[in-house]
Automatic annotation (TrEMBL), chains A, B:
SUPFAM superfamilies, per the entry: Dihydrofolate reductase-like
Domain Bacterial bifunctional deaminase-reductase C-terminal: 8-191
A GO MF label: 5-amino-6-(5-phosphoribosylamino)uracil reductase activity
Domain of life of the source: Bacteria
Protein name, UniProt field: RibD domain-containing protein
Organism from which the protein derives: Actinomadura hallensis
Amino acid sequence: MSELRVHNFTISLDGFGTGVGQAPDAPFGHAGERLHQWMFATRFWADMTGAEGGGTGADHAFAAMHEPGIGAEIMGAGKFGPPGWQDDPEYRGWWGDEPPFRTPVFVLTHRPRPSIEMKGGTTFHFLSASPAEALETAREAAGGKDVRLGGGPSVVRDFLAEGLVDHMHVVQVPVLLGRGVRLWDGLESLEDAFDIEAVSTPSGVTHLTFTAKRR
Amino acid sequence: MSELRVHNFTISLDGFGTGVGQAPDAPFGHAGERLHQWMFATRFWADMTGAEGGGTGADHAFAAMHEPGIGAEIMGAGKFGPPGWQDDPEYRGWWGDEPPFRTPVFVLTHRPRPSIEMKGGTTFHFLSASPAEALETAREAAGGKDVRLGGGPSVVRDFLAEGLVDHMHVVQVPVLLGRGVRLWDGLESLEDAFDIEAVSTPSGVTHLTFTAKRR
């Protein structure tokens, strides 16, 4: 069965997945790079960016789960570009000519536009759809593989609320952002639907994995 | 130097230290006992309640730090009793005749009343005071020992915001309460003032310790 998976979704100790003030030079707003330093230090990240080195410990082991078995991604409009990108008909995403996805990517937006084929195997499609509809479309495109749910926080929350997520990996970083978009709002008793594990690592972060109970 | 310490302060994954609907038979509201199961399973708790057994692993090691070196406690009105206790002049706290504190305890309330001497060494004093004033009073009573800050969440938050906390032990439990009183609101960049460690344990909880940087 094709699963819906969330990977490397990083939040602050106070639960924010994104700060305030997102802009072309600030994809995470005032959070800056504080949420993702743990990932930049991994071999996973070095390999993805063509750099040398990177740790191969627990943070790497979790981070690398991002890749295998994925046939498509779903993301929110805020992950695709800064506020207002919909007003630029030439906008092609944060990632330059060759995005790292290398699969079909379904961008949820109330203002769909024609699909864009990028270098390296990524094609961006634009959908105005409910979570269940978007998942059905992405599953068809994934050809039997799993679908990754890329964020941001409100998109993950919407799919969780509808019971559509099979696996979720959340990384909690010991910083307090104070402001931004929370992951956990409105998800009371989410633990009833998942087996949850927590593992803290020497970098100071805590990895939380949520595995959906058989329904 | 007498320190101000927070121990065994337990929150849900979504950051709530107390649920909604606190009442005489529900000190933590709809959270029930879900936040504190980890502690009930420790030798620390067994010893405190006169029971047998209890684990002596990491959860116990953290929990037991609650006791040594404490000369006084400060707590909010919501820790002393259910909503409305101020209307009952005979009310003497949640804990019966012999509360477990065995030191002076300063209860913050806008409606102070005469002090109450209990069995076993606990005396409840009632103060309408700012955090700094309350700490000064408690320090005098502690006779050179440390002062424990007992909660609830809004009281801990107020003392954190004023930079008065020297050590804080927070336990994060993998449940989502959805509603209640949050610990972390309004504490942006708290990490600048503390060295923070995270340790997850086999019970599934994560212990976070905050050690104030030398100021």
